[in-house]
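Field log, afternoon session.

UNIT: design team B
ACTIVITY: writing a sequence onto a fixed backbone
BACKBONE:
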């Protein structure tokens, strides 16, 4: 299985990146040359502030492999909860220049890198919100794990962190949108954000697609979220991609 995954990863790198050779050499341990930029074949570039070894997971799945399927989506409004260095938002905004993208990231260092990536690609259709996303806008205890943000509400054993205000999706302008794509990689808050989407379904566009990495420490069990989605008329599908657990759900108004 590990060999098959590596082969699949290599194929995705070759297919998606114009600088695939230098990336592959580093990934194979054959080069120590720092790779600070991913150049996609479609013309998009993603800068890596810490280098390819540290930031690989933040660019491979959402941009190179496009596991969420954003490039082929017909959405005209995107929400990126947990944007990190901005790979998903960059791909969404770059491949859908007339769409609007909201990127949420509470970690200052990551948000700054995301902002630089938006600027380097001249993406003016992204709104960067430097805040954690919750269902009620409460104050949260925010901690940093491995130099990338994670809320200690869901990883309380980590300790430390700072108190920060959060925001809700009330800050998103849903007016005029026909199709909404919501990507969630928010370290345990995905359950409550999906709950917000269900509770405010009447405010959303006629078509909604939710795609998220569901973390095992999320206070709301995956089974409960799946049932709530079904009750709300969504068709939730659980998938394992590159050994991580993802949840996809879609609903269109009749």
């Amino acid at each position: 299985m590990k060999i098959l995954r590596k082969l699949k990863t290599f194929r995705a790198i070759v297919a998606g990146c114009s600088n695939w050779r230098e990336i592959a050499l580093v990934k194979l341990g054959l080069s120590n040359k720092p790779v600070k930029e991913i150049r996609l074949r479609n013309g998009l570039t993603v800068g890596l502030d810490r280098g390819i070894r540290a930031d690989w997971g933040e660019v491979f799945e959402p941009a190179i492999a496009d596991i969420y399927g954003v490039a082929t989506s017909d959405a005209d409004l995107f929400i990126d909860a947990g944007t990190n260095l901005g790979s998903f938002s960059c791909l969404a905004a770059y491949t859908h220049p007339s769409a609007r993208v909201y990127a949420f990231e509470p970690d200052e260092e990551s948000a700054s890198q995301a902002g630089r990536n938006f600027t380097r690609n001249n993406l003016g259709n992204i709104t960067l919100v430097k805040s954690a996303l919750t269902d009620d806008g409460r104050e949260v205890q925010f901690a940093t794990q491995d130099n990338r943000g994670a809320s200690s509400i869901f990883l309380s054993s980590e300790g430390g962190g700072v108190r920060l205000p959060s925001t809700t999706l009330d800050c998103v302008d849903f007016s005029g949108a026909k199709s909404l794509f919501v990507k969630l990689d928010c370290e345990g808050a995905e359950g409550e954000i999906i709950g917000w989407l269900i509770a405010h379904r009447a405010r959303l566009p006629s078509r909604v697609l939710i795609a998220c990495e569901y973390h095992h420490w999320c206070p709301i069990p995956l089974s409960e979220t799946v049932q709530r989605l079904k009750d709300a008329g969504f068709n939730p599908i659980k998938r394992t991609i590159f050994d991580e657990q993802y949840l996809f759900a879609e609903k269109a108004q009749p």
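LOG NOTE: The chain is about 30% helix and 25% strand.
NEXT ACTIVITY: expression trials, pending approval
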